[in-house]
Design brief:
CATH superfamily of the largest domain: Type I PLP-dependent aspartate aminotransferase-like (Major domain)
Distance between the termini: 25 Å
Number of domains: 3
Largest sheet: 8 strands, mixed
Shape: globular
Order of helices and strands: HHEHHEEHHHEHEHEEEHEEEHHHEHEEH
Strand content: 5-15%
Bound molecules: pyridoxal-5'-phosphate
CATH class of the largest domain: Alpha Beta
Number of helices: 15
């Protein structure tokens, strides 16, 4: 059994101001659910931890007891307290574990299954754009202008589905650059892709309906579908993205969620034949296709692939887009492109559930697009990310030769680094985390157990020196790992 790195744990608990049983239990529960405290890890004794934290031993014992009762920890007589087997169900059908008092079963499933990644920042955080190079001064100016010029009604309760200027600008952009067939009236502005997915799941599926999801896939989609009490069926991906192989044996879907422009996290691009096949599959099941087009602006080898939505002649595709990658995540602006018949119900539901807001920011964004800043920023970031990807490849190749095969990286903000079969990724992640390097494993994107061993390495949001440093660090950790082909 692994011992946790005691200093790390103490520092993290001190940073969270854990002074009592409740705050301590809360922090530990969160880290276990997030995979940050791996299964099998041994916790310090209550006496030792209490001394490190400068709190009463009884508080630590109470927190441990609470988490044992909840199934997060296991106490072995005479040998200590350990993190239990993974709290995330091994398969979507596994019975739910005991859940904390007060949380509904659905809430508990949501919290467990949609583990918030521990390393949301750091050198390899996937999906993080470069925020430092965002044209902040221009954005401030446009925001200020929009705020000054906004009529008073833009500050009240709204239910228009978004600022008309932004919907117009987006319709033009999506038609020209993404091959989406739409007009402004089909666009609904929402607080990010996450809200778009949640709304889609709630409005188009009944609790218990099946959603096919890519395996491996996007945790945010899993969370949205969990929140809507859908049953997720993991569909394998191959070199062309979601593969409807074995579909005959799969439960009939109500929703099919996919990232055809750049499979997340696998990175494959879905060719047109597969897109057409999936449109047919959806038609056969009378299901909706939810196309999450989250980062396809960043394509390095050829022009972006036109959206699946543009091929749809039956109004089956719900197209989801976001400004989180092209601008910055905390902007919380995303959008849906909806078939005509769904526009009004989605607009009403969004206005009820989330309320509409940030109209001046939406107006500023419309000007940001119309004045050419948006296209310029995408071009600049595409070049920057291309260079960063090349740097990451070069450092890993220099350190490891061809012992760590990397994905083609034709698009997006991350690469996949393939590890040998049966490699202990968790041990590597733990060692890396102990040294302050956060790694995202392939496994954590899977609903079912997998034999594939790989890392998801973001490279876009970190400056060059730190990226090179992290790559060297990773290489060193790999070289010291059992079962790694390039071991020194
Ligand atoms: C597959 C996928 N979809 C969507 C998003 C963005 O979601 P949001 O707009 O909620 O920030 C991400 C971000 O990581 C993602 O990886």
């Amino acid at each position: 059994m692994d011992h946790l790195h005691k200093d790390w744990l103490t520092e993290a608990l001190l940073a969270e101001h854990c002074r009592g049983a409740q705050t301590l239990a809360h922090a530990l529960r969160r880290w276990i659910a997030a995979g940050r405290l791996p299964s099998g890890a041994r916790l310090p004794s209550s006496r030792a931890l209490a001394a490190e934290l400068g709190i009463a031993r009884g508080s630590v014992s109470a927190a441990y007891e609470q988490l044992v009762a909840e199934g997060y920890l296991a106490a072995r007589h005479g040998s200590g307290t350990y993190v239990s087997a993974p709290v995330r169900p091994a398969t979507p059908d596994a019975p739910p574990a005991a859940h904390p008092r007060g949380l509904s079963a659905r809430g508990h499933a949501l919290v467990q299954a949609s583990r918030l990644p521990a390393g949301l920042t750091g050198a390899f955080a996937p999906g993080m754009p470069e925020i430092a190079r965002f044209p902040h001064a221009t954005w401030q100016r446009l925001l200020g202008q929009a705020q000054r010029q906004a009529s008073l009604e833009l500050f009240g309760y709204r239910q228009g589905g978004g600022h008309p200027l932004l919907c117009e600008a987006l319709a033009d952009y999506l038609t020209l650059s993404r091959g989406v067939r739409c007009d402004a009236a089909q666009i609904l502005i929402v607080p990010g892709a996450q809200a778009a997915l949640e709304l889609t799941a709630r409005l188009l599926a009944e609790p218990g309906d099946t959603a096919w999801v890519e395996e491996p896939g996007y945790g945010g989609a899993h969370a949205a579908f969990d929140a809507a009490a859908l049953s997720m069926h993991p569909m394998p991906v191959d070199e062309h993205g979601l593969a409807p192989k074995g579909a005959a044996a799969a439960p009939a879907p109500r929703l099919i969620y996919l990232t055809p422009s750049h499979q997340y996290p696998g990175g494959m691009v879905m060719p047109v034949t597969r897109r057409l096949e999936l449109l047919e599959t959806a038609a056969r099941h009378d299901a909706w296709l939810v196309e999450d087009d989250y980062d396809s602006e960043f394509r390095y080898s050829s022009a972006p692939i036109p959206a699946l939505q543009g091929l749809d002649r039956q109004g089956r595709v719900i197209y989801v887009g976001t400004f989180s990658k092209v601008l910055y995540p905390a902007l919380r602006l995303g959008y849906l492109v909806l078939p005509d018949a769904l526009v009004d119900p989605f607009r009403r539901a969004a206005a009820r559930l989330y309320r509409e807001g940030h109209y001046p920011a939406q107006a500023a964004l419309a000007h940001f697009i119309a004045d050419g800043h948006f296209a310029r920023h995408i071009r600049a970031m595409r070049e920057l990310y291309r260079q960063r990807q090349a740097l990451l490849r070069a450092v890993l190749a220099r350190e490891l030769g061809d012992a760590l095969p990397l994905s083609a990286g034709e698009a997006g903000l991350h690469l996949i680094a393939r590890l040998p079969d049966a490699f202990d990724e968790d041990a590597l992640s733990r060692r890396a985390a102990d040294e302050g390097l956060w790694l995202r494993t392939w496994q954590r994107h899977c609903l079912a157990p997998t034999d594939t061993r790989a890392l998801v390495l973001g490279y876009a949001g970190v400056e060059e020196q730190a990226l090179a440093h992290a790559a060297t660090h990773l290489a060193r950790l790999l070289q010291a790992s059992d079962g790694f082909a390039g071991r020194r």
